[in-house]
Every structure is written in C-alpha cells, then in structure tokens.
Amino acid sequence: MSKRESKASSKNDDNPAVIIERLRNYISELIKENAYLKKELNQALESIGGQKPLHDPETIKKIFDMYLEENKSLQKITEELTKENIKTKRGGKWYRSTVKYILENTQYVNLGYITEDKLKRAQEKLRKNSRAKK
C-alpha cells in the first residue's frame, strides 16, 4: 500500500458514514450468528432434554408470575393463556401438563428467562401441591 493509499484509508476510518456502515455490517453478522447459535442450542437441548423450550420470554415470565405471585392454579393459567390467545410453541392448545412442564423446566434459567430462585420456588410449590392432593 502506498503512502497516498494509506492516508486515504485512514481518512475513511474517521468518516462517520464508513463507521456507520461497518457497524451495520457487524450487527448484521451478530444477528446471523445469534440465529445460528439459537438453532444449535435448540438441537443440543432437544438431544439432552427431549423437548425444545418455549422461546417467548414474556410468556414464560407470565406463567411463573401467575403461578407464584398471583397464586393461580395450573388450570387457571391454561384458561387465561387460551383466553388471551397466546399459543404454545407448536401453535396449539394449552394444557395443565404443558404449564407444569414449563414450571419444572431448568432450561428457562439457562436461557435467562427466569431466575434460579423463581424456578426453585415454583418446583417447591408444585411438590407441595402434589403432596396435598395425595
């Protein structure tokens, strides 16, 4: 590279339009990489856990809040999710077993949707409720 090309190149490095374009390209690459990593994570989770987790953090948080904070039963949660037209990961109907699976699933802590404390509280409440029914 000649001195003239080097000076032109360094001037371009300070150009806001060039910086913005580089940032756009970088963000685009991160988005592609994130999609790839999500796919890889789903495949890994399926291979060890059998099912993919629901990927809507808001719905997951809502389920935990309804169960722990609002003290709603599994049945009431399924009714409310259905009434609000919130779909399962496969676009299907909500069942008590689906909600229970979510409340027991450690993958949502690993994905950062809920805290470990919230998961433990939900699991303990599920255990107490199952013992009370026996």
Secondary-structure blueprint:
Blueprint: H1 3-14, H2 16-49, H3 57-68, H4 74-83, H5 96-104, H6 107-110, H7 116-133
Helix pairs in contact: 4-5
Coiled coil: 20-47
Organism: Geosporobacter ferrireducens
Domain Recombinase: 40-132
Q: Report the uncertain regions.
A: 4-8
Give the count of structural domains. Answer: 2
**Biggest sheet details:** none
Helix content: over 70%
Mean pLDDT: 80
Topology as a string of helices (H) and strands (E):
HHHHHHH
How many DSSP helices? 7
Strand content: under 5%
Shape: elongated
| Rg (CA only) | 23 Å
Distance between the termini: 80 Å
Give a count of the beta strands, DSSP E runs of length 2 or more.
Answer: 0
Content-based structural category = mainly alpha
Quick overview:
This protein is mainly α and 134 residues long.
Tell me what you see in this structure:
This protein is an all-alpha fold. The protein folds into 2 domains: 3-49; 57-133. 74% of the residues lie in helices and 0% in strands. The protein contains 7 helices and no strands. It has helices at residues 3-14, 16-49, 57-68, 74-83, 96-104, 107-110, 116-133. Helix 4 crosses helix 5.
